[in-house]
Amino acid sequence: MCENCNSNRPVRVRFAPSPTGYLHVGGARTAIYNYFFAKHMGGTFYLRIEDTDRKRYNETALHDLMRDLKWLGLQWDEGPGCEGDCGPYFQSERLDIYHREIKKLLDAGYAYYCFCSEERLQEVRAEQEKSHVPVTGYDRHCRNISREEAEARIAAGEKAVIRFKVPETGVTEFDDMIRGHISYQNELLDDLVLIKRDGYPTYHFASVVDDHLMGTTHVLRGDEWISSTPKHELLYKAFGWQPPVWCHLPVILDKNGGKLSKRKGAASVGDFRDLGYLPETLVNYLALLGWNPGDDREVMTIKEMVDSFTLERINPKSASFDEKKLQWMNGQHIHLCDDGMLKGIMKEGLVAKGIDLSKEPEARLDEIVKQLKPRAHFVQDLADMAVYFFVAPTTYDEKGAKKHFGEGSKEVATLVRDMLASIEDFKTPVIEKGFYDLAERCGHKVGELVGAPRLAVSGVTAGPGLWEMFELIGKEEVLRRIDVALPLMK
């Protein structure tokens, strides 16, 4: 196995989201790295749903979360809908397991009942802040209550949480594959809650118990969890369990160095899907925010990234999210897409615009996709750019009209129109030769002849090769569109 390592056990990693909101791109990258690592090492990638916060639990969020993971191509080996030997995979269905394990800590003296009310805890915090004490947190008021007294009070109807008895002295140390050696003074750590008043476990307790019982060998998670890791290490030690290999991932920032958020633009996987990004693009781009394949490759398939993936190549520095780079990469992945798939997307978009394709030859549609594909940044661009192949423009790009329909444009466009009318075999090579011959006869550069005809025929100033575009639209329609635009020229 190894990768700095956890004995010789086969790699088992997990993505363990809470179904309380959308799948953020930071969470998606965590899932991607776990998936890549498992596949590279021939291990198991499992999905665990951490749904113990019942107040914030959202059924729609759970559905969307699993949909987004599947859309990204991150199919889990074990988890909801794909049960393995370590289930249940919903923490809310594992309460008996947590109650069994907490009893072990209570029996061993590593945990205790706390009866402090929320009001008292708030008073303690307020007093600590007022006094400017160096360490804030629970004051361990109930730490020395005997087990017998605590159980008697519970039997009498009092409510309690169960806290972990953190050592008051010493140092807790651990190694992180990205951050290196890290140590914390135990006196700075709080006696964290393990079981809440409602009987549900906290994240810290459930995560440690589940990672051990589900055989997790490596924990790849965001670096916001580093400060929780010494608490988790102490829990592993109390149980006598071997901790997993820790790997805390760098944060993803926006272009201004702030946190990515919906308020500032797209931030969730669903946002980017709705904007027209391919799943392959998002996986590729997010993977490279903090990791590199060991060479200068940027546009990669999932298989290529899996083959190259190692934890050692994860950079500890935060990465900046650049949507312009993402758009460029989306265009690159569109170039790699199967033309047949893109044709289907284009046809669907054109039909939605009210264009009848029932009599269109498939060969013509194939060629249109071929011409537009290199210029598309999003799959929906194909239908948007293809409209003028089927419908004549009714308006012309305003800036383009000022430039290409200005003084002398009518004379040039008329020369081009007459040249095109004289062509019998209206094919790309013949059209191209016609333009070059006309330029030579009239003393113009070819570039001076194309602006007005392109705008007249398409309504826009940019697009695929002009000769190819004219052939696909057809001689009769090209001439008709130029005739319509001539009165607008000077």
> What ranges have pLDDT less than 50 throughout 5 or more consecutive residues?
none
CATH architecture of the domain at 398-488: Orthogonal Bundle
Query: What distance separates the N and C termini?
Result: 75 Å
> Could you estimate the helical fraction of the residues in percent?
40-55%
Please characterize this protein's 3D structure.
There is one protein chain. With 490 residues, this protein is mainly alpha-helical. The chain has 20 helices and eleven strands. 33% of the residues are buried. Among the domains are: 262-335, Glutamyl-trna Synthetase, Domain 2 (Glutamyl-tRNA Synthetase, domain 2), CATH 1.10.1160; 337-387, Helicase, Ruva Protein, domain 3, CATH 1.10.8; 398-488, Arc Repressor Mutant, subunit A. The model has no long low-confidence stretch (mean pLDDT 94). The protein has helices spanning 25-40, 59-71, 95-108, 118-131, 147-155, 203-213, 229-239, 269-275, 279-287, 302-308, 323-336, 339-352, 362-372, 379-386, 398-404, 409-421, 428-442, 447-458, 466-473, 475-485, and strands at 12-15, 44-47, 111-114, 161-164, 171-176, 180-185, 193-195, 218-222, 245-249, 252-253, 319-320. Helices cover 46% and strands 9% of the residues.
Brief summary:
By secondary structure, the protein is mainly α. The chain is built from 20 helices and eleven strands. Among the domains are: 262-335, Glutamyl-tRNA Synthetase, domain 2, CATH 1.10.1160; 337-387, Orthogonal Bundle (Helicase, Ruva Protein, domain 3); 398-488, Arc Repressor Mutant, subunit A, CATH 1.10.10.350.
